[in-house]
Amino acid sequence: MPEPELQVSTDGVVTLKPPRDGDAQLLVAGRDEEFFKWLGPGGESPSPVACIWVGTELVGWVDYDLEHDWLQPGEVNVGYYVFPGARGRGYASRAVELLLVHLLEHTKHTTATLVIRRENVRSLRLAHRLGFVQHGELDRGLFLVREVGSIS
After folding, report:
1. Which top CATH class is 9-147?
2. Could you tell me if 78 and 96 are in contact, meaning their C-beta atoms sit under 8 angstroms apart?
3. CA of 87: how far to CAs of 60, 98, 111, in Å?
4. Are 52 and 91 in contact (CB under 8 A)?
5. pLDDT higher than 80, residue 2
6. What pLDDT is recorded for position 151?
7. pTM of the model as a whole
8. Are the CB atoms for 35 and 81 separated by under 8 Å?
9. CA distances to 15, 26, 37, 69, 74 from 59, in Å
10. pLDDT (tens digit per residue) in 128-149
11. 52, 47, 83: which is closest to 65 by C-alpha?
């Protein structure tokens, strides 16, 4: 059964919208050295679950996937990226929270996971702020989990 498409959702500051025509090029153009350092080369035509908007400005993306052998039933792996000029304003935290609401309300997934390299201090702070706790370590980084319905 395919995953349900994310509906437009907002917390009043950040709005998540499914990608539209032309968004992939903007997402690629927004990559910087931080993107490549933590996420690798990235695809030429990214199609995340949602683009992160603040007003009329596209500031990044948030996504989840199920294609990892280390995921248990009910778990999803969450990823996110915010463009350089929009960092440090809480947009990634807000976007991940909105994504978790989508997972809770529209899917059967119960646990969100993050894999973050130990050196990625900014992402580790975000994870802890949102209530993710370390649940081991993978060769790719620290393995953190949070119940989808828990309140941060």
Report:
1. alpha beta
2. yes
3. 10, 17, 26
4. yes
5. no
6. 66
7. 0.94
8. yes
9. 10, 9, 19, 31, 29
10. 999 999 999 998 899 999 999 8
11. 47
Give burial (CB, 10 Å; 0-12/13-18/19+) of 69: exposed
pLDDT in tens, 64-116: 999 999 999 999 999 999 999 999 999 999 999 999 999 999 999 999 999 99
* Higher-scoring residue by pLDDT: 28, 150: 28
Q: What is the distance between the alpha carbons of residues 103 and 46, in angstroms, rounded to a whole number? A: 20
Q: In degrees, to the nearest 5, what angle opens at C-alpha 87 toward C-alphas 101 and 116?
A: 65
Which own/partner contact pairs does 43-51 have at CB distance under 8 Å and 24+ positions apart?
46/19, 47/19, 48/19, 48/79, 49/3, 49/6, 49/18, 49/99, 49/102, 50/6, 50/16, 50/17, 50/18, 50/19, 50/95, 50/98, 50/99, 51/16, 51/17, 51/18, 51/19, 51/20, 51/23, 51/27
Report CA Rg, the chain.
14
The pLDDT of residue 4 is: 85
* Total number of residues shown for the chain: 152
